[in-house]
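Predict the 3D structure for this chain.
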Amino acid sequence: MKRGCLPQFLCLALFFLILVWRMIGAPITSEDWSGLHTSFGQARALLPARMARMAMLWPLTGAVRMEPASGAPSLLNSDTDPEDALLKKLVQQSAPESPQMTLAVFDAQTGQIVPMPMESYVCSVVAAEMPASYHLEALKAQAVAARTRVYAQSLAMGGGGCSQHPNADVCTDSAHCQGYASVADCREKWSGEYEVYRQRVAQAVTETQGQIITYQGRPIEVFYHAISGGTTEDVQSVFSESLPYLVSVDSKGEEGMRGYSTDASFTFEQAAELLGKAFPKDELTAQVLRDSFTIGSYTPTGRVDTLFLGNHEVKAAEIRKALNLRSTWFTVSMDPDRITFHQRGYGHGVGMSQAGANAMAADGSAYPAILAHYYQGTEVAFITR
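Done. Predicted structure below.
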């Protein structure tokens, strides 16, 4: 060995570490670091899928290729899975316990009602509603939750369908029904990770096919949100209804999630303008806000329930909507010019916390246990018709 040269095994080890570093999507340049969206914990969960993808694409002649198990749908081969088939016409591997269903889906982009297989729709919802980098068991929990929601809402089940679009079971408007990501949407947001993420989402859906959450034999009313802030909220505190399976539970392991704690700051003039649009009868001004804006009451979990605005006490959920706040779990600070909301969590807090589900999955919990934790007293069952 020449003096000044690294031993051969160290060179090989260094090369391997660099290869793994890039395979988990770790940053190298300053631009990479500033644009980092995937935590190292989540990236580590993606490593097996990325290694499998590299094996499939390995350019050497005679290289071993990983093939799907016999009878399983090929979700990695673009030649047999046309672009418009990825999330809209997911190849189904039917389970005998679960009949296949076709939904009437109102496409908010085209304004038309289109027939869509249940599992294809669920695939698009999971892709839209939960980061595909989350643990596979968390993605499975999301798939079962999304399927339960549309199943209970389906016209075929007597659920009434989409209230805004007659004759449709569900719509693709996330503000009304559930989020929905088309193939084009997924290609845009997943970019270079498209093949890996499409495989993970499809796997989560197909491995839970036909499964829903039930309470005493009936599908439940499903709610979920991004980050609870450490404790979920009782449904009665938010939606004024009491459901035995939607009670407050601990949601551990969220503290390190991006977006767990955030601030939203407004000048008093900006806040008065936004709140004035939501409450036009109150004649709100910057000075009225300075003099009257205070917290009125809290929910049992510590979230804000009501606030005083002018001469009225209003629900925190209405303030959140008017100011586009991330949650109602906040404290308020003011200086002579600005009002700042110090927020915790993201979403209404009811039902499954997606960040909490990911933390439970990372600790070894399977999706039935995750769902049983966030929806108390429920169990996972197959659709039967």
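Confidence is low (pLDDT under 50) at residues 53-84, 86-97.
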